[in-house]
Write a structure and sequence with these properties.
Blueprint lengths: L2 H10 L1 H26 L3 H18 L7 E2 L5 H11 L2 H20 L11 H23 L20 H10 L3 H16 L3 H4 L9 H19 L19 H7 L11 H28 L8 H17 L6 E2 L1 H9 L6 H15 L2 H4 L4 H15 L2 H9 L2 H16 L2 H22 L3 E6 L4 E7 L2 E2 L4 H9 L5 E6 L5 E2 L1 H13 L6 E5 L11
Parallel strand pairs: 4-6, 5-7, 6-8
Antiparallel strand pairs: 1-2, 3-4
Subcellular location: Membrane
Keywords: Membrane, Transmembrane, Transmembrane helix
Protein name: SulP family inorganic anion transporter
Length: 523
């Protein structure tokens, strides 16, 4: 696609991308702040990363719909990294080196790793994220959560877990927050009504924007007329208010390069690069599944984009970034069509820091929780579970195991567990289903012809050995590799081992176009 047609595509979709970018901004702002807080980093550092992710990385990204920023999955790594290196300024150097590593991974075409995640595991990840969003937002929705907005781990910093937090929340409901949350949720659901969707003017205004503005208004009424229902400041957005350049300088931290000679810096950098790259590739695969246009993202380009982002962000005092599934799925849910929506979200983050901090700090978290409750439900609809079940156990079991593993641990551990189960079913399928075929003829002696397929990998080894072990005695077996462009060494070895011992069962073996390999004699 040439530059002119790209520009016209972006312009044509502005009416959808700008409102979507605004919705993502509302969700991203408290997430950026919360992740900074949980990481033990300056509050402003997460917002800087969100701005870089939107304003810069969106244009370099291999995906039209992914949104980059600080990730909840990196909080422990950031926290430990700052502690290991002694200061946040020293940690920023490790982030920059991680960016260089990611850039290198992109040029080495490591993005292809993303293609090896089974579909059932990616769908399980989406369903799990949706489920976690719902469970994690309920306490914010009722105004009774002390953990940071956007926290995703099962075991929480306050000693509770995802489920006990909900029980605690219902025992200490803040009714003002609940009222605001309920009205916000009703507005967002109402905005999905076909009458509003088909209205030329109203369809341009995102329901989340209406909900947020209404939430601010209702809380102002509570403060002035019903102070008992006023939402506590701890359950409002808390953005640093910058009155001057000196305020900005005091919030931003700059890199300390004295750690260049320290091995610990490179260990932390490598950890960030690998974890951030994996989380990005997982998010990209998931967003591609949600994309209504089913576009395939360029994962190598995405790694390069993330590398550039992780070089720029620490130079400005920002946290490491990844493509983030929560922001990306919110983007899709809000109707985004192109990368412009991510760029718009970055612009709004920058504007909110410079000019709108006072207004932003009046937004109740319960209203933003309502936005994420809707996003969560769209990701984990009952229909998804039903569809996966209908596909059979070899698809459903890796799917449901991934959901449960992510729910009770975290994203990367859960995905690893899901992958192990998924690979087990792949190996099981290869064990049962031969990638070759045979023809059997009955004469004086059984003649069995086994014709190997075009590509015979080590995954086919088990099925071939199984077939050879069950060949009838007194047979004449022809194993034909004429059509094979590639036969794995392990398979060749198995065939020659069979030939060597076949006489014990009175089986005559004839090999056609099968390369010779040396079989080790263990006797």
């Amino acid at each position: 696609m040439n530059q002119e047609s790209s520009s016209s595509k972006y312009i044509a979709n502005l009416s959808k991308d700008i409102p979507a970018g605004l919705v993502v901004f509302f969700v991203a702002l408290p997430l950026c702040l919360g992740i900074s807080l949980a990481s033990g980093a300056p509050l402003f550092s997460g917002v800087i990363t969100g701005i870089v992710g939107g304003v810069v990385v969106a244009w370099l990204s291999g995906s039209q719909l992914a949104v980059s920023g600080p990730a909840a999955g990196l909080t422990v790594i950031v926290l430990n990294g700052i502690e290991t290196l002694g200061s946040f300024e020293a940690f920023l150097l490790a982030v920059l080196i991680a960016g260089v590593i990611q850039l290198g991974l992109g040029f080495l075409k490591a993005g292809m790793i993303g293609l090896y995640f089974p579909s059932s595991v990616i769908k399980g990840m989406l369903a799990a994220i949706g489920l976690i969003l719902i469970l994690k937002q309920i306490p914010h929705f009722v105004g009774a959560d002390d953990d940071f907005f956007g926290e995703m781990d099962f075991f929480q910093a306050d000693g509770r877990n995802t489920f006990t937090e909900i029980g605690h929340a219902f025992s200490s409901i803040q009714f003002g927050a609940l009222i605001v949350g309920a009205i916000s949720l009703a507005i967002i659901l109402l905005w999905d009504n076909p009458k509003i969707k088909n209205n030329k003017f109203l369809k341009l205004i995102p329901g989340a924007l209406v909900a947020v503005l209404m939430a601010i208004l209702i809380n102002m009424l509570f403060i002035n007329f019903l102070p008992a229902l006023a939402i506590a400041p701890t359950h409002l957005v808390n953005l640093p208010v910058l009155g001057s350049i000196s305020d900005f300088k005091s919030e931003v931290k700059f890199m300390d390069i004295s750690g260049l000679t320290s091995p610990a810096t490179y260990i932390v950098a490598f950890t960030i690069a690998i974890v951030a790259s994996l989380e990005t590739l997982l998010s990209i695969e998931a967003i591609d599944k949600l994309d209504p246009h089913k576009r395939r993202s360029d994962t190598n380009r995405e790694l390069k984009a993330q590398g550039v982002g992780n070089i720029i962000a620490p130079l400005l005092g920002g946290l490491p970034m990844t493509a983030v599934i929560v922001r990306g799925s919110t983007n899709v849910s809000a109707g985004a069509q192109t990368r412009v929506s991510s760029f718009v979200h970055g612009l709004f983050l920058a504007l909110s820091v410079m000019f709108l901090a006072g207004l932003m700090n009046q937004i109740p978290l319960s209203a933003l929780a309502a936005v994420l409750l809707v996003v969560g439900f769209k990701l984990t609809k009952p229909a998804l579970y039903k569809t996966q079940f209908k596909l059979g156990l070899d698809q459903f079991i890796p799917f449901i195991v991934t959901v449960l593993a992510i729910l009770f641990t975290d994203l990367l551990i859960g995905i690893c567990v899901g992958l192990v189960v998924g690979v087990f079913f792949i190996l099981k399928a290869n064990y049962k289903s031969p990638y070759f075929y045979h023809k059997e003829e009955h004469r004086d002696k059984n003649l069995i012809r086994i014709k190997l397929s075009e590509h015979v990998s080590f995954l086919n080894k088990a099925s071939i050995i199984l077939t050879l072990d069950h060949l009838p005695e007194n047979s004449h077996v022809i194993i034909d590799g004429e059509n094979s462009a590639y036969i794995d060494y392990d398979v060749l070895e198995a065939i020659h081992e069979f030939k060597k011992t076949a006489h014990e069962r009175n089986i005559k073996v004839e090999l056609v176009n099968i390369d010779e390999v040396e079989v080790m004699d263990m006797h």
